[in-house]
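User: I'm putting together a teaching handout on how sequence relates to shape, and I'd like one worked example. Could you take 37S ribosomal protein S25, mitochondrial from Penicillium alfredii, show the sequence you're using, and then write out its predicted structure as tokens right after it?

Assistant: Happy to. First the sequence, then the structure tokens directly below it.
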Amino acid sequence: MTKINLTALRVRQAAINQKATGKTGVLPNWVAALRDLPPAEVLVRNRPPQHQLVRQRVKTIENKSQVVFEVEEKPRKPKKPSRLFQPVEIKYEEDQLRKEFFRDHPWELARPRVLVESMGKDFENYDWRRLQQPGKRLDGESVVQRQLWLLNNVKNMTKSNAYDIARREFYRLRLQEDIERRVAAEEAEATGANFGPSYLDIGMELENKNFEQWKDWARKEAQLLDQRTAAFVGAPELVQPEEGDAAETESEPPEAGQ
């Protein structure tokens, strides 16, 4: 049976001994911190607690006008965790709402996003009584925060109803953005602006270029296949015509519609 390795627990004492023997001239900065906050000496890993998923909803009591918050806890069966030496997964209600929205709208993930200006808690600085916020681009996160606000602040609101309300507002604002974009482009073109080829034109040009390259490759492969077949049956080797004699030796089939 091997001994327990306690080197990590004695790292502060090892640094002090090296300073005392002259091996190092200056003590590291973390020596004082380890003196005040020493590492744990418990060598047995305890089971991580099983956290409950808490949801808060606004509901009304029958025959009364007051509004109360009802806490719903998802029951968990006590069991031994399968990943004992890994941290417990932290779950929030927004995660499930976000997953459902982007599952129904996968192309929203393709829109460019600015991550440098986001600190992860920007939603706390906005008033989600409405979907569109000043200084924030409309995206899927706006729908998630709007749905969460409806669930926590509107009486007797269900998850599906909040999702429908947030989606309806989101579609209306997206349609408004598209109309504003088309009107701005038409106004700019009317005053002499030239935006160049569109994405569709560029894509068709690249597709035609690749198609012409494929036709050249397919023509060469067909010629090689004919030569191999002729050599296998014992026929005389095919002679490739010159470019100037191509019209005299072989006529190309007419194109469709001629």
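A couple of points you could highlight for students: The first strand starts at residue 54 and ends at 60. The radius of gyration is 35 Å.
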